């Protein structure tokens, strides 16, 4: 078997290509002539990876919201979209939690819970069940990020007949938020309650354990 890359850039270890539709070399369903028919075609294998809702939503907050709340990023930084999202979260925080000094994880979760608009439905924190349309798309395999290295990445590569080893995070040089190791710091019972309600469908469909006691987060 050859190390063929039938779809995608040859420099697949370059993280900048992950969100670059022009240079990534990937074909996207939304660019196809009949995308709905393509998705519904049961002869075409479909694969997806999901992440534990606790670490996923915290990672989104740490990467997209907290840097603005902490002043690490500002209005003129390169990602102005998330600065606009942050200003909306901050406005919610000021109007509803005036005694809290600045936007924190709890403020962010309350905003997600109580506001319904294009920003609260952003793909970085929208339900994975909704994003993947699990009720209408028949997936060949759904892996979990937590099992990526040990089981699920090798399983997927075997499915697609690829003999390239799955690269480590170090090889990709992708800067992680390390959200999983920070769960204990950011979660109390009040944050757990909000996340459990926000992402109940993800917990149930992908069989992630619900946690109600923050002591369970201790390593």
TrEMBL record:
Keywords: Glycoprotein, Golgi apparatus, Membrane, Transferase, Transmembrane, Transmembrane helix. It is found in: Golgi apparatus membrane. This is Sulfotransferase family 2 domain-containing protein. The keyword Plastid does not apply. Pfam families: Sulfotransfer_2. It is a single-pass type II membrane protein. Its main location: Golgi.
């Amino acid at each position: 078997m050859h190390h063929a890359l039938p779809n995608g850039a040859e420099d697949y270890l370059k993280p900048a290509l992950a969100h670059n539709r022009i240079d990534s070399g990937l074909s996207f369903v939304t660019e196809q002539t009949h995308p709905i028919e393509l998705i519904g075609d049961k002869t075409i294998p479909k694969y997806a990876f999901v992440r534990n809702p606790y670490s996923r939503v915290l990672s989104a907050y740490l990467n997209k919201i907290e840097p603005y709340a902490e002043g690490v990023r500002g209005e003129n930084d390169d990602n102005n979209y998330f600065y606009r999202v942050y200003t909306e979260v901050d406005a919610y925080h000021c109007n509803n939690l005036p005694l809290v000094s600045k936007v924190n994880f709890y403020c962010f979760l309350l905003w997600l819970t109580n506001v319904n608009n294009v920003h609260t439905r952003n793909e970085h924190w929208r339900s994975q069940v909704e994003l993947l349309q699990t009720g209408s798309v028949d997936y060949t395999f759904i892996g979990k990020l937590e099992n990526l290295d040990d089981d699920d990445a090798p399983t997927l590569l075997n499915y697609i007949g690829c003999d390239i080893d799955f690269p480590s995070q170090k090889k990709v040089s992708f800067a992680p938020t390390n959200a999983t190791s920070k769960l204990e710091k950011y979660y109390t019972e009040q944050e757990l309650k909000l996340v459990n309600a926000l992402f109940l469908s993800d917990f149930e469909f992908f069989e992630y354990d619900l946690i109600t006691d923050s002591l369970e987060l201790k390593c």
